[in-house]
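Table 4 source record.
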Amino acid sequence: MFRKIVIIVICVFLLTSLAGCETIQRKFTRKPKEPVKPVPKFYEEEYKSEYPNSTLYDNHYMYWKAWMDELITALEGDNNKKQKQTVEYALGEIKSMQRYLMDVKAQELQKDIDDLDKIAKKINLGTLTSGMAISLRVDADRHLMRVKKDFSLSQVKDYIKPQQ
């Protein structure tokens, strides 16, 4: 008697495990493959801005000036991460300014880019002593004044590349 009950329980267990949550037919049929999606194609086009180059130059100039002010303020403290971030952003903005200038003025601006790059390398070396920070702050302030004097929009408006 006990054997019959065990066999019946095993049979019931096997039947329910075969059935599972879905019907047997749905359980053993293959699922259809998803169709292969076409690969998107990208066509390279030259970017044409809707703004004149003088406006773009002025925007980068304003951003550069703001980042330089922020750098000078950051050099007063001892937050090395903030100093690295501000000098990198200022360097990126001054390089963007250079793209909109004709070759003569772009070469003049390259000297100032090199000066800012030297400041960036000193900051990226690691923690600064208070004496080094003061020296870098003076250098950054000189750089700021020199570029403001020579490369403001009113000074370089004749040297900005024409719109293409």
